[in-house]
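Service request form, structural biology core

Requester: graduate student, group of Dr. S.
Request type: structure prediction, single chain
Budget code: on file
Notes: please return the result as structure tokens.

Sequence provided:
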Amino acid sequence: MIAGLWWLAACGGGSPEASVPPPAPPAEVAPADQRLVLLISVDQLPVRLLARAQPFLAPDGGFARLSRGFSATARHAHSDTTTCAGHATLSTGASPTKSGVIGNYWKGGDKLVYCVDPDGDGVMDVGALRADAAADRVIDAGGRVVSVGLKDRSPLMLGGHRPSAVVFIDKEKQAFRGAPFAESVPVQLGSPWTLSADVAHPGPDAGPFEMDRCGTAFPHPTDSLDCWLRSPQSGTALTDVALAALTAYHLGDGQQPDLLAVAYSHIDYIGHTYTAESWESLDAILQLDRDLGRLLDGAEAAAPGRWAAVLSSDHGAIPGDGPRVQVQPALAAARKAAVAAGAPDAELMFDPPNVWLPSGSDAAVREAASQAVAQAFRAQAGVAGAWAWRTDAPPAAVSLSTDPERSGDVYVLLNEATQWQDGPAVGTEHGLPYDHDQLVPLLAVGAGVRSGVASGEVDTRQVAPAVTALLGVPPPRDAERSAPPELLAGPP
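Core staff response, request fulfilled:
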């Protein structure tokens, strides 16, 4: 067992009412010579996956080096644990109800709009983000912010409103886009993904809940961009992009504070496809461990002794073997209830957990139909609760995931370890307020970081204030928590 990682134990239940820590005392600022912070997000990293990988991690790998600093289990306090919402929380220190980023999609007019393309014009930006980001404070201080990732929404959210550069994969061109240093890193398709280590795996390679999208057993092909993104090869290429960013922008070599955000999305692609319990997810973590080691080496070369790294995740994952609720029968019952309550006889718009009623009803009819729809969903097996939340009082975690302009008329919450199904019962999802989705690691190491293990859970809203404290700049204006005081070494 690697020292400092003992806290990464698989966790059990949890509830939508899980408590969060109170605001911490004001954070100390960084040492005067601090120059660079790496904000690393590993998309879909439940604590149980890192705990499973722990016995096989290299003693000189990235996770072991990070664990020599500060280690904690962090909880996302909001209910709809999705990629855009989670990255917005890590970036701003604000919950979705304050940032406005309630999920990956919400209703705009008569269609769903994307969290980083709310105008539907194909121009990706964070105009929908209403909260101030840690990256914005770095720019205000005269520093540089470079944010890189595989998905678009992840680095865009981490980069804030005015980044120096944002990089992500252009799926049409099958290449990195956003800056010359990134465009020079090739996307090399075709080399099969083979097991990287001799590890004692429980169960079969081709598990019963794995999607047959790129094969269910090793080796996996990577001759398409889709399969390449679902392999550790994409994470290795992203690490090359991050290292190129350090050089291209001379990050860490001036007097200003600099921020490099790196969003590893391939762990999420792999988890959705094969589940977090698969051979593939474990092997991907072991290969990510090596890439993180290279990234930390790059930071030391760029800013010797004057850098720190903070790693966390936007959400965890639902176990693949849990119950599933059929979408279409539930929607049909809800539509029937809405019509009976006076709503127009039209399709409901459903992007879990949000249900939007058809437009055209007056306020009284809409309220009655919302209550009827909520009742229809509550009658479905596997549903923990449903609220016409504008008039009802949902649990605290649900309230933190709602926005008056963007959220649906009804919020539907499934039972623990349960997911929606509208096709084969394979793959897995996330988006629930239980331990399997809410609990993620928080690791930090480097200048300004105090070594040790947190005495209890921390809140993911403390990540952004930790980043700004390590750089000695003010915290994001909309942050709802301060940096964990146990993480900060304080001034020399």
